[in-house]
Give the backbone structure.
Amino acid sequence: MIAVRHGQAISDGVVWLAALLFYARRAGPGIVELFDDSLEFQFVAPTFGIAHPTGYPLYTLAGGVWSRLIFPFGNWAWRMNLFSAAAAATAVLLVYLAAARLAAADPRRRDGWAGLAAACAFGLGPVWVSQATVAEVYALHGLFLAAIVWVVAGLERRMASVETRDTARNALPVRRITALCLLIGLGLTHHRMTVLVLPVLLVYLLWRIPDLWRPRRAWLGWAAALLAPLALYAYLPLRAALGVSDLNGSYVNTPAGFLDHVLARQYVAFFAENALGVPFSVADAVRLTWRQVGAAGFVLGLIGLAQLRDARGHAAKAWVFVLLALLTNAAFAIGYQVADREVFFIPVFLFFALFADGGVGMIRRLPIRTPRGVRMVQGAQIVAVLLVALGVFGRGPIVDRSQNWDAHTYALRMARVPFPPDSRVIGLEGEMTALKLMQAELGLAQNARPITADDPTQRAAAIAAGVAAGEPVFITRELPGIEEMYSFSGIGPLVRVWPRGQAQPTAVARVLDMELLDGRVRLQGDALRVEELPGGPLLALTLGWLPSEPLTKTLKVSLRLVDAAGTPLLDDQGRPRVEDRFPLRQVAPSTAWLPGEWVRDEYAMPLPQDEAGRAAAALHVIVYDAENVAELARFELPLPP
C-alpha cells in the first residue's frame, strides 16, 4: 500500500510539474496588453492596491505575496503571469485527481488514464491556456472549482467506504463539508461566479446525506468556514484609509461605496441589452466547447454522460452534481452579454472535461477478463488520452505569449523619456497604468504625472490646462482638432505639446542634411542608435523637419532594413521588414506645421536577431506623399557597429 501511494504521489507531481512548465513556457514575459484587466492586476497586486469591482481581495493579496515574497524574480508583470501559470497547473492537478477517483469502479482506487483524459481535455483548451499565461483571475477561479470537485470526489469515497461497512458510525463527513464551505467562502472573495456552485452543492449534499438538514453543532463550524473568508473584503476600506485608490478613482470609502464596489452593481447591465452585447446561443456554446477539447474530447464527454444512468455506481450522485454545475454555469455564460464571453465558459469546459474522463473510465470497465483483452483495453485508454491531448479535429490553436514584448517595450520606452520636472503625461487608462507600473517598479519617470483621460474631450481639456499652466505636456496618441492649436515634437513613443510656435526641440545631429519639395522642407537626420530592451534591441532614428512655407502634402516615412547589397531583408513570412510611420505619430500632419519651426521626431523599429536580421547592414529611409505614395526622398544610413 505504501508503494502504491508513493507511486501515486510521483505521478501527481509529474502531472503538476508538466502543466506548470507547459504554461510557464508560454506565459507572457511582461506586460501583454495595454487595454485589458491583465495590466491592472500586474500593477495592483505587487503594489497591494485596489482592483476594479468586485475588488478581488484574495487575488490581490495572494498575488502580492507571490510577486514580492515567494517569487521575487524578473519584472512584476512576468511574476504575475507566472502566478496564473502556477494556479492553472494546480487546477489541472486537481482535475486529474478528482477525475481519476470519480471514474474508478472501485472507490478505493484511481483510474489514472481517465484522470489524464480530463486533465488534457481541460488543461489544453485554448481559452484556458490563454488565461493561464497572463495575469488574470480565471486561473485561480478554475483552481477553486477543481478543488470543490476534488473534495466532492473524496466525500464520495468516504461515503462509499461507510456504506460498504454497513454502518452509520462516523458517517457524517464533517471535515470534508467544512472544506467545501471554506472553498466556497474563499471563492466568493475572489470571483462572484462561485455563487453559481453554491446551490448545486447544497442540493448534492442534501441528496447524498439525507439527514444533513437536521440541526447539529457542526453547523456552526460550517457557517464559520463559509463566512470567515469574506472578512478579506475588509482589505478594501483598510487600504483606502491609507490613501490607496483603484486606478480610475471610482472606489468611495463609505459603506455605500464599499457595497457598490464589492457587489459590482454596474455590471448587472450586462444581463440586458447593452452596447457590448454579442448574440450567443446554445449552438454557439456547443461549438465553443468543441474548439476547446477537439473531436476526441467532445465524443468522450458525450459518452461519459452515460455515467448518469449508472444508479448503482459509487459516484452516480457526484456525476449529477457535475452535470448541474455545468448547466448552471452554461446558462449564466450564455446570458452574460459581454464581448469576452468565452472566459466565463471556463467552468463549463472544466465540468465537461470531467465527463471526458468518464468516457475513458467506461472503456476500462468493459467486461473483458482475458490478459490479451485487458492489454487491449489499456491500449484503448492510452490512445483515447493521446487523441484528447493532441486535440485532433477541431481544437483551436493554443496561444503562446512567450515572445509578446510589444506592450512591455512600449511601456519601458515611455518611462525612459527624459521628462522635465512637473511633466504631465496624458493618455488612455491602459497607457497610464503601464507608466505607473514602470514608475513603481523601476523608479523611472519620477518627474511625470500620469493623467488618465479616456474621453477625447477630457484629454483636450487636460492638454489645455497643462499648457496654460506652463507645464511640460506629453500625449500618447493623436487627438483630432489640436493639430493647429499647438506645436509638437516627438520624444520616444510620446509627443510633447508646446504653445503654438514655441516648440523648443533638442538639436538633431547633422549626419543627414537635405531638402525636399523643391526646398520647401529641410530634413536633418541623426545617426542610428540601438536601444537595448528586454524584448530585443530597437533601431532608433531622430529626424528634424523645417518647413519654409505651409505644406500641402502629407508626408510619411518608410523604414526598411537592407543587407550589404541593398536587398531588403525578409521576415519569416517572406515579407520585407518595413515600418511605415506618420511623423509625430499622426498627432499633427505636415500640412499643420508652422513655417520656420523645427519639428523634431523619433522613429524606431525592431532590430531582428534571427540569421536574416543579423545580415542587416543599413536602413533605407523613404519619404513619400501619403496621398499618392509618390516618393519624395530616399537615403541610406549605416547600422551602428
Q: What stands out?
A: The longest helix spans residues 76-103. Confidence is low (pLDDT under 50) at residues 166-170. The chain has 19 helices and 14 strands. The first strand starts at residue 423 and ends at 427.
